[in-house]
Each structure stands twice: as C-alpha cells, then as structure tokens.
Amino acid sequence: MDAPSSNAARPVLEGPDITRMLTRIAHEIVERAKGADDVVLLGIPTRGVFLARRLAAKLEEITGRPVPVGSLDITMYRDDLRLGPARALARTEIPGDGIEGRVVLLVDDVLFSGRTIRAALDALNDIGRPRAVQLAVLVDRGHRELPIRADYVGKNLPTSLRETVKVQLTEEDGRDAVLLGVKPAAPAGEQ
After folding, report:
1. Which of 67, 78, 93, 154 has a beta carbon 3.0–4.6 Å from 59's, enabling a disulfide?
2. Among positive and negative, which fits the CA dihedral 153, 158, 159, 161?
3. Do you know which Pfam families this protein is assigned to (predicted)?
4. H or E, element range at 103
C-alpha cells in the first residue's frame, strides 16, 4: 500500500459546513434584499450552478416563494482563451422573466483572481440590464487581480499561490467538501 502523498489535498470543509454556510448566506440575502422578490440567481458553471440551485431552495424555504435560478456560461468571455486548451461550452439558462430590473446574484464556488467574475459581468451585459449585480461565493481564497469582491462569502480561506482549492459537490463529485492541496512542482524549465 502506498503512503499518502504530502501533496494530497486535505478537506478543510465538509458537507455539514457547506450546508450551514449556504443557509447563512440565504438568510443574509433575504435580510439585505428585504425578501427575495426581485432576486435572480445565476450560477457560473460548473459548481456555481449547483450552489445557485441549493441557495434558491434555501431562499424558498425562508421566504415561501420560489426564486428564479439559472446558469451563466462565461467561456467565450474569458481573457485566457488563447492561453490554454479549448474549454467546453456550458449552457446559459436565463429564467423566463429575464434579468431586466432585477437583482442578479452571481454564484460561484471559489473566488480567486476575479477574472471569472469579470467575464461573468461581461456575459451578463450582453443579456440585459439588471438593477444590481451581487456576488455570492462559497470560498474566497484571496489573490485578487481585479477590484472585485463578493457580497456574500461562505468562508474566507487565506491561501498561498502554491496551494489549490477544490470544491466538491454531491451533484458533480459524489460528496460535499472543500479540499486544500498543493500544486505539483512544475518540471524544470516550465512554470
């Protein structure tokens, strides 16, 4: 049997922690929005979509009203398209009543450089003109490259640039967890 690698990711949050954080965020949304009547949740694929659906369910539990939820694919708005292999397009699904004049809450799993959220804002701009745009993330790991901050954060998790943060959700990964790992060292001559 192999010994565990020192580079193995370790869980820093488990399922109950994630559930608790989403419940807290849902209450914060209701308090800040004075209900959730005008709120539309748009998850950023992949795991942001699952988190948005979970938040919508919690908001419905709290308010007694369904909250529109959809997804926003940002692939074609990324600024790193030419830097790596082609990414598969995901689906953009905007709820039937649209986003005009609504409070759009973008939902993602990890906030890092801010470039994903910048791309989401560009994609949203092509769809409509919401009254306000807010951001909810499960984990804020720091290292922002753009002046973007989340309105709702499940957990601030200070990291080094050598570390990785991976969110696992039951819908995609079979379990709920946030894993903190270390990037493998690049071969000599590469970065």
Report:
1. 67
2. positive
3. Pribosyltran
4. strand 103-111
Q: Which domains does the chain have, with CATH numbers?
A: 15-80+89-160 (3.40.50.2020)
- pTM, to two decimals: 0.91
Q: How far apart are CA 71 and CA 123, in angstroms?
A: 11
Contact yes or no for 90/120 (Cβ under 8 A): no
Per-residue pLDDT 10s for the chain (191 aa) are 444 455 689 999 999 999 999 999 999 999 998 888 999 999 999 999 999 999 999 999 999 999 999 999 999 998 887 777 777 788 899 999 999 999 999 999 999 999 999 999 999 999 999 999 999 999 999 999 999 999 999 999 999 999 999 999 999 999 999 999 998 876 665 54
Token pair for residue 141? 């790991």
The Cα 109–Cα 52 span in angstroms is 10
Where does residue 182 rank: exposed (0-12), middle (13-18), buried (19+ CB within 10 A)? Answer: middle
